[in-house]
Write a structure and sequence with these properties.
Layout lengths: L15 E5 L6 H9 L4 E4 H8 L7 H8 L12 H8 L3 H25 L5 E4 L15 E6 L2 H12 L3 H9 L4 H7 L2 E4 L7 H18 L1
Parallel strand pairs: 1-3, 1-4, 2-3, 4-5
Helix pairs in contact: 2-5
This protein binds dephospho coenzyme A and adenosine-5'-triphosphate.
The site of adenosine-5'-triphosphate has 15 residues, from helix 1 and helix 6.
GO molecular function, one term: dephospho-CoA kinase activity
Function: Catalyzes the phosphorylation of the 3'-hydroxyl group of dephosphocoenzyme A to form coenzyme A.
Enzyme class: transferase
Length: 213
């Protein structure tokens, strides 16, 4: 039985876990398990989605830079169309990132200030790729997954082909680069049940580090 969540607790400001992993490695699945144990999750993918939803701050600059065809009828960014575009055109990806990354950083800073829980866990897909995140984090937790499993899970979830998934993976750090940057690793090659003991061990470890600090 899990203890009631410490929802009103201001987290230890200096203790920040950055969680990363390749596309489909299981970041969301793992952060949900930490959230259930009282960690405050700030998920930069969710922030990026909100910025590109109808009336999000990213919509007007994206419309100007990419044209109306990248805005869906409901006013949100057409995600599938943009995904196909940016992962086959590196300069388009750079233009999209130049619009969204400063907005994501600003919203992330606000979300960290609002966060309540035992500690803050920041889910950042491009943590290793970014020059700035690693030095702002206390721990770097990598969700590691072998490439075939990663590809299979994304193909199943997003109805994508293997070349499409591989094009996204090619735009990301390699598995090796992520593992080199890691202070902690969760392996997600088998079933969801295999994640729980790994999460519980690290959650206890993080709390012990906070208690000592
Ligand atoms: C390219 C877009 C349109 C694809 O949308 P889609 O709904 O298919 O994917 P979603 O946003 O849920 O992201 C899923 C995963 O794709 C990968 N990914 C997304 N953006 C990037 C990127 N710029 N470079 C490499 N991988 C990326 C990450 O592994 C991420 O977890 C979208 O991801 C986007 O707007 N990206 C730019 C913002 C960004 O860099 N986000 C990631 C870091 S917060
Ligand atoms: N251990 C597992 N067993 C079975 N399915 C899993 C497991 N871990 C994750 N999945 C499934 O694989 C897919 C990808 O997982 P998840 O969304 O957690 O990854 P992610 O790293 O957050 O993805 P993205 O990079 O696209 O944001 C999801 O459909 C999820 O339900």
């Amino acid at each position: 039985m899990l203890k009631p969540l410490p929802l009103d607790v201001k987290p230890a400001a200096s203790f920040r876990v950055g969680l990363t992993g390749g596309i489909g490695s299981g970041k969301t699945t793992v952060t949900n398990l930490f959230a259930a144990r009282g960690a405050a999750i700030v998920d930069t993918d969710l922030i990026a989605h909100a910025l590109t939803a109808k009336d999000g701050a990213g919509i007007a600059p994206i419309q100007t830079a990419f044209g109306n065809e990248f805005i869906a009828a409901n006013g949100a960014m057409d995600r599938k169309k943009m995904r196909d575009h940016v992962f086959s055109d590196a300069s388009a990806k750079q233009r999209l990132e130049a619009i969204l990354h400063p907005l994501i950083r600003a919203e992330t800073a606000l979300a960290i200030n609002r966060a309540r829980g035992l500690y803050v866990m920041l889910a950042i897909p491009l943590l290793v790729e970014s020059g700035t995140w690693p030095q702002r984090l206390t721990r770097i937790l990598v969700v590691d997954c072998d490439e075939q499993t990663q590809i299979r899970r994304v193909m199943e979830r997003n109805a994508m082909t293997e070349p499409q998934v591989r094009a996204i993976m090619a735009a990301q750090a390699t598995r090796q680069q992520r593992l080199q940057a890691a202070t902690d690793v969760i392996t997600n090659n088998s079933d969801i049940e295999a994640l729980t003991p790994q999460v519980e061990r690290l959650h206890a470890f993080y709390q012990s580090l906070i208690a000592k600090s």
